[in-house]
Amino acid sequence: MTPSGTPAPSASTLAFVESPVQLLNVLEWAYAHTGERQPRLDGVPRQGRRRGDGGARRPGPADRPTGAAASPLSIVVLPPTDPMSRGQLRRMAALARDEGHEVRWQEARGSRFAPLKALAALARDVRAARTVVVGDPFSRYVQLLLTLVRAEELVVVDDGTATMEFMAQTARGERLVRWHRVGGGGLPGRIRELAYAPVSAAARRRFVPAGRRGHRVEVFSSMPVTAHGGMTLRVNDFAWTRARFGPPRPTRGTDLVGTSLVETGVVDPDRYLDAVRALTVEHGATRYFAHRRESPEKLRALSRATSLEIVRPDLPLELIARRGPVGRTIVSFPSTVVHTLPYALTGTGVTVAVCDVDPAWLTGSASPRARSFLAGVTDTARDVRRLPAQAAPTAG
What we know:
Elements: E1 13-17, H1 20-34, E2 73-77, H2 83-98, E3 102-105, H3 114-128, E4 131-134, H4 140-146, E5 153-157, H5 162-172, H6 186-206, E6 216-221, E7 232-235, H7 239-244, E8 250-257, H8 269-283, E9 285-289, H9 296-305, E10 309-311, H10 317-323, E11 326-332, H11 337-344, E12 351-354, H12 370-379, E13 385-386
Parallel strand pairs: 1-2, 1-4, 2-3, 4-5, 5-6, 6-7, 8-9, 8-11, 9-10, 11-12, 12-13
């Protein structure tokens, strides 16, 4: 609201994010879109600082980019319910405000009527926006919002490796289904799918450019994807992250990066524990950067079984690693970071290595796409070191 009590004018660009990584990539897109190269804002406290001790100086109004007001960006955060994601989103929201963007926190989960209330609250701004930026094209809530979109341009930023599957499915004209999702839910689930089908179909049409007089579609990605059907592809090289933070001070040690493959039902928890234990010994790793979705029980088991220090980052790993300190070698399983960290850490001397997932680690409930998708994530990663096969423990 303005001081007079009248509604504030709608931003010409409206972004919807549901995860910290999506919000980071919206900031990267805004930076690339305006072509700004402002002085670095050193606003991220180092790992290990106490909450509330201030860390580095918080940038003030004089530090903010001058180009933001000329092209207003309003970011709507649709937070998930888990505390780790919400905490990271609040930190990322503070960084977005420091950049001069408007951030709106809109609860759309947690109660039966929350989605409908959020939809009603956002409808006016969604219809008025000329450019709409989304971070998760698979999100049912985002797909519902897209039924209201009248924008001239639709932009998709990365929600991790899911962008690879999004591009493949839209190229084949398939319905949008997450790669690790397995059908289920019985009759109620099939009824819900049937009822939702018109919304999903409408969303798929929005992701296809409509020609000269219709809407445009841009994909802003650091993933190895190819544009198709009139889409525009812009490479996300993490220029904002590199301009604002670091460079880091590499240590002599090795850091491991956790994944949520166990939590999504793809990898067996015991196999995962064995793999982490073996990599710790093989590479002399000292720290384990947990994924925000990893369960406390799993992390406690990892701590007991290894000598690793478990670190729960309060920001996306690209920012944490860029600020440092960070290990001279970072080892990850197939995940988003094997594509993003080489961009964020370019020129720092840090090596990113990827450990394949042995097919024997997959659970019986893993989707049929799991094996080939994970292999594709590894095979297409740029500027990473493939660990020798013996580094990954085999089943048995």
